[in-house]
Amino acid sequence: MKSMNTISPVAESPEANENNAANAMPESAATPGGESIAPAPLDAATPDTPEAGPAAGTPAAGMPAADSPRALLKQLQQQFPAFRNCLPLEIGIDKQLLSRMPDLNRKLMRAALGIHTGSMRYLRAMEKATVRYDLDGKAGAEVTDTHRQHAKELLQQRFKKEAERKKAERDAAAQLEADRKRQEKLEQLASKFSRK
């Protein structure tokens, strides 16, 4: 069954189609159109205000340019309320990011968005969300029932995999313990018969 990726808010572009495989975006964080969803932080000041921080397109003061998806995600969480508060991101959030940070590496950005939108916290937020948010945390379009359902299904799959993993670990531990006891009994028998 082909999975329907409806969580991600990244707008589809011609170059995005070419580079989809290289973008390292998890399947769970993309829409059927290749879009990815990432929330924007709510407590960041708006760029129109003097206290908003650095100029659009520049990293926050004292922040080095990100060199990994996780470093970029941390920077986005510090800079934008929608990411910090793990809000459902607007479709096309990638275009908003690129307009504010024109020097941003697209591949790095897509990977960071994939990590963010594939996280348990984000999926839980999407499962109950009613609206999406822009980078500044302003409400936008509604979250569709399809997107909420997709988030719910992804969470259920994750919980099922985690339960299976834990069961496998318990079974392996029980098998090791049974093997250890069997070996002990064999050693006891061997020592008992070697005395005679």
- Please count the helical segments: 7
**Content of β-strand:** under 5%
The CATH superfamily is ProQ/FinO domain
CATH topology (fold) name: Fertility Inhibition Protein O, Chain: A, Domain 1
β-strand number:
2
Major β-sheet profile: 2 strands, antiparallel
**H and E order:** HHHHHHEEH
Q: Provide the low-confidence segments as ranges.
A: 1-6, 11-63
Structural class: mainly alpha
Number of domains: 1
Q: Please give the radius of gyration in angstroms.
A: 24 Å
The separation of the N and C termini measures: 66 Å
Strand ordering within the main sheet = 1-2
Which CATH architecture would you pick?
Orthogonal Bundle
CATH class: Mainly Alpha
Oligomer: single chain
Mean pLDDT: 74
What does this structure look like?
With 196 residues, this protein is mainly alpha-helical. It has a single domain (14-155), classed as ProQ/FinO domain (Fertility Inhibition Protein O, Chain: A, Domain 1). The protein has seven helices and two strands, in the order ααααααββα. It has helices at 14-18, 69-79, 81-84, 93-100, 106-117, 120-128, 145-195, and strands spanning 131-133, 139-142. Strands 1-2 form a two-stranded antiparallel sheet. Helix 6 crosses helix 7 (145-195).
Entry keywords:
196 residues, mainly alpha
How do the strands and helices of this protein lay out in sequence?
Layout: H1 14-18, H2 69-79, H3 81-84, H4 93-100, H5 106-117, H6 120-128, E1 131-133, E2 139-142, H7 145-195
Antiparallel strand pairs: 1-2
Helix pairs in contact: 2-5, 6-7
